[in-house]
Specification:
Elements (H helix, E strand, L loop, with lengths): L11 H12 L2 H13 L6 H13 L3 H9 L6 H13 L3 H13 L6 H14 L2 H13 L6 H13 L3 H10 L5 H13 L3 H13 L6 H14 L2 H13 L7 H13 L3 H9 L7 H14 L7 H12 L4 H13 L3 H13 L9 E5 L2 E5 L9 H25 L1
């Protein structure tokens, strides 16, 4: 086009930025941005909207914010673009602040806005916030179309409220394969294996072709229910009947299925015959199963798994602790000390654990040995009072005897 001397205009650039966003072509996109700047087309609102989309998709959230902040005119699409860009780049708090600014500026959110916000709620794991977003959907009278309904199901399921997820799912008049998959996976991840598999059968009767997420939920359900035979069948059916190529998550679900059933050798053989290289999560899953079903390592699988795990992630302190604890559990103190020594020699430390407690609208984070919380004295005092209360009850019980 340029070679023929045809000048691009404000309708040309949005398509180019969308193309660059789709393939992550950050260098080419910046060059096109420069060209738009030279031709004076960068100040057009729908060019700027796609610029925000482009930079957000390429992980350059600071560039996206700069384009957005310099916009002299904004539309709902502008706000949706920057909110989505923040969520994609794990700036969840920023996305919520932008939503508040959007409302303050007089813009009414639409279905796209709500889908983005529900995704942010999933990232935060904040069910209360997700319910508030749902209430806004109802209050604004927004149409719960397939995409918004699927986002609601996904939010409720991933935030732990499977009942509400099921209520939303049942009330939807239009469902896609993603809707069914979100509900099946939600049931499976919360131990409702029977419900997940029943829903999968109902989905098949409705002539909806499953996808890779559907089968991930089905395999997780088989794992929780101890249905090893069904798990094998579904794993092969996924490939042979539907042509779905397994990804790491599917292989991991099968290893978990074997491990929960105590089939450690079969799980290890399955890993060694995989066409892809196993990741550390898979090895840790099997090592945990070995600690439960074969604590003395009579099968020899635990030794092999521990070695593979340390070779794969030699700089992870948590892996060393996990392997050392397995040896210590069965009294193999020399091996446990050898692993601990290797950890010290590398200067590694186990990542500190953290607990989160939600009080009112605030989330408080606690670390081991951290007394920096403002209410720390009150927390220790409460623990003391609970202890005294329990002691008094025990004394009263003994006197009554």
């Amino acid at each position: 086009m340029l070679g023929r001397g045809i000048r691009p205009n404000r309708l040309t650039y949005p398509f180019l930025f969308k193309a660059c966003a789709a393939i992550g072509a950050i260098k080419v996109g910046k060059q096109i941005h420069t060209d738009a700047l030279k031709r004076g087309e960068d100040s057009v609102v729908y060019v700027q909207n796609t610029l925000v989309l482009f930079y957000g998709s390429c992980g350059k959230i600071n560039y996206a914010r700069r384009v957005f902040d310099e916009m002299t005119m904004r539309t709902v699409v502008s706000w949706n673009s920057i909110v989505s860009a923040c969520i994609e780049n794990y700036r969840i708090k920023d996305s919520m602040e932008l939503f508040v600014r959007m409302r303050d500026c007089g813009f009414e959110p639409d279905e796209v806005t709500m889908v983005g916000l529900l995704s942010a709620c999933v990232g935060l794991g904040n069910l209360s916030l997700g319910k508030w977003v749902h209430s806004q959907v109802i209050e604004k009278g927004l149409i719960v179309n397939c995409k918004l309904g699927t986002s609601l199901v996904d939010m409720y399921a991933k935030c732990g409220d499977v009942y509400c997820a099921g209520r939303v799912f049942d009330r939807m008049t239009e469902r896609s394969v993603w809707t069914w998959s979100a509900m099946i996976l939600g049931y499976a991840q919360h131990g409702c294996a029977v419900e997940a598999l029943a829903l999968f059968e109902k989905m098949n009767r409705g002539a909806i072709k499953p996808n890779y997420v559907t089968y991930l939920g089905v395999l997780c359900a088989c794992s929780h229910a101890g249905l090893v035979g069904d798990g094998r069948r579904f794993f092969h059916e996924m490939q042979d009947l539907h042509g779905i190529k397994p990804v790491m998550a599917h292989y991991g679900a099968m290893v978990d299925c074997f491990g929960r059933a105590g089939l450690l050798r079969e799980a290890y053989t399955f890993i060694t015959k995989m066409p892809v290289k196993p990741d550390a999560v898979m090895w840790r899953t099997l090592l945990s199963a070995c600690k439960i079903h074969d604590v003395n390592d009579y099968s020899g699988v635990g030794e092999k798994v521990g070695k593979s795990l340390l070779e794969l992630e030699p700089r992870s302190g948590g892996n060393f602790v996990m392997v050392a604890n397995k040896y210590a559990d069965v009294g193999m103190w020399e091996k446990a000390e050898r692993v601990r020594r290797g950890m010290r020699d590398r200067g590694l430390k186990k990542m500190t654990g953290v607990s989160c407690v939600k009080v009112g609208d605030s989330i408080h984070r606690f670390f081991p040995g951290d007394d920096s919380q403002d209410a720390c004295e009150g927390i220790h005092l409460l623990a003391l009072l609970n202890g005294l209360n329990l002691h008094s009850k025990m004394v009263h019980y003994e006197q009554s005897i």
